Structure formats: C-alpha cells, structure tokens
Amino acid sequence: MSRELNLEKDFQRDHRQTFAPTLAALSQEPVSGLSIESLLSRAEVILEVLRSATYYSILAPLSAALRKAIFKVQDEYLDNGDTPEVAALRSLQELALDARSLIEVEGVQMISDRGTVRMVKILKLKFSILPISSPY
Questions:
Q1: DSSP class of 81
Q2: What's the rounded Cα separation, in Å, for the pair 124 and 109?
Q3: End-to-end CA separation in angstroms for the chain
Q4: Residue 124: what are its φ and ψ, rounded to 5°?
Q5: To bridge 106 with a disulfide, which of 28, 83, 124, 129 should be the other Cys (CB 3.0-4.6 Å)?
Q6: Helix crossing, 36-71 with 7-14: angle to 10°?
Q7: The pLDDT value given to residue 64
Q8: What is the predicted pLDDT for the residue at 20?
Q9: 89 φ, ψ to 5°?
Q10: What is the pLDDT of residue 21?
Q11: Residue 61: in which H helix or E strand, if any?
Q12: CB 122 within 8 Å of CB 105
C-alpha cells in the first residue's frame, strides 16, 4: 500500500533522475554513426530504463483501479486521454497518416482464397528503398 501511495512521487523522481536525462542523451547521439559495441551499450541502457518504466506501466493501472474501487468513481468521470494505450493509438494513427503519403494505389485485383473472393488494392511505394550496406 505504501508503494501505491508514493507511486506518483517516485515516478516524478525517476523521470527527473533517469527517464528524461536518458531520453535527452539518446536523442543527442544519432545511431547511424555508432559502432556495434556502442549500439549494444545503447541497447543495454534502453533495456535498463525500460525495466524501471515497466514497473510504472504495471503499477499505475493497478493503482488507478484500486483508487477507483475505494472512492467508487464512475468510469465516465475518468480521463483516459493520457494512458499509454491511448498515446500508442495516437502514435499509430500519426504513423499511418505519414505512411499514406508514401504510398499510392496502383490498382485493384480480385483474389480468390478457398472460395472467398475479395478485392485487394495494389500499392506502390513513391520512393525506392536503398539497401543498407554491412561492414561484414
């Protein structure tokens, strides 16, 4: 129960001391110029920060459910706009909109699969994908 009561304060501390500085450091160093060893080190840093973030992503919904039950709050009074699920959905929508500008419909084709006929759009990328060269 004490962890739940201190959850917000603990998160603010970890955000200030760990999450924000790590994100700032990662954003300052582009991955394109890093060696394999540096990339592995960077991945370890990210995994370590994700371990801490996972603690909050698990405990925060449990805390909300506990407080909702204790204070008997109705769902319509809760704002879920800041939940990770809603943020992820917004990011996926933005990604889909960005991807839409890179793809054009070239045509439509009928496909029959086990007696089911459906129409499929034939898509064409508006750019070419260049192969990534490997030092190996």
A1: T
A2: 14
A3: 53
A4: -135, 130
A5: 124
A6: 160
A7: 79
A8: 92
A9: -65, -40
A10: 93
A11: helix 36-71
A12: yes
- Is the pTM higher than 0.85? The answer reads no
Q: In the prediction, which pLDDT does 91 show?
A: 79
- For tokens 């496909």, the residue is 111
CA 133 from centre of chain:
27
User: Which tokens hold the place of 84?
Assistant: 């990770």
Q: How far is CA 99 from CA 70, 80, 91, 127, in A?
A: 44, 27, 12, 11
State the DSSP H helix or E strand holding residue 25, giving kind and residue range, or none if neither. helix 20-28
**DSSP-assigned beta bridge partners for residue 121:** 108
3-class SS of residue 130 = coil
Q: What is the pLDDT of residue 131?
A: 53
Whether 7 contacts 64, CB under 8 Å: no
Token pair 């060893």 is at which residue? Answer: 37
pLDDT at 46: 92
**Amino acid in the structure at residue 27:** S
Mean pLDDT for each consecutive 10-residue tract of the chain (136 residues)?
80 93 89 86 91 86 82 76 73 78 70 74 61 53
pLDDT score of 18: 94
